[in-house]
Amino acid sequence: MKYLIFTLYFFACGWALTSLEGCKDDEDLKPLTRTDLLTNKNSRGWHLEGIKTSADATEELPACQADDKMWFASDAAWRHDNGKTPCTDADQDLNDRWAFANNEQQVVIAGTGQKYNILLLESRNLQLQDSLGMIYRFSCGCGK
Q1: How many separate domains does the chain show?
Q2: Model confidence over 55-112: pLDDT tens digits?
Q3: What H or E segment, with its residue span, contains residue 10?
Q4: What share of the chain is helix, strand, coil (3-state, %, to 5)?
Q5: Which domain holds residue 102?
Q6: How many helices, marked H, and strands, marked E, lie in the chain?
Q7: Is the sign of the CA dihedral 23, 26, 27, 31 positive or negative?
Q8: Residue 104: which CATH number?
Q9: Among candidates 124, 35, 33, 118, which has minimal Cα distance to 72?
Q10: Model pTM greater than 0.90?
């Protein structure tokens, strides 16, 4: 008899726990939008990992570019951070606004009008291509 009561109690607790798990917010179940991916729903820094200059060549980044970050915020703020080692004394961090264009297939930096085709946008990887065909490869600065 004790075994039967224990078994029923065990299954009742298991059912209760799985029922509560099913009550997640609808927000948790929605797929991430392209804005969510780009901004991490708030602000995200993307570390420059590499530049591909042609179909065959990937340039090794000089130290002054290897610490660069591009920030995208959900309020459309954009920042290019030159890091601790700018390439020249004239290099300054840039602040501007960004927007999607072409059905969210491009990112446009407002002040310069520079358009980047989005080749890859994932939670931890971003690839942008400029009008000259150069491909910029970024990884997320998650938690940094």
Answers
A1: 1
A2: 666 667 888 888 889 999 999 999 999 888 888 888 889 999 999 999 999 999 999 8
A3: helix 2-21
A4: 25, 35, 40
A5: 33-140
A6: 4, 9
A7: positive
A8: 2.40.128.280
A9: 35
A10: no
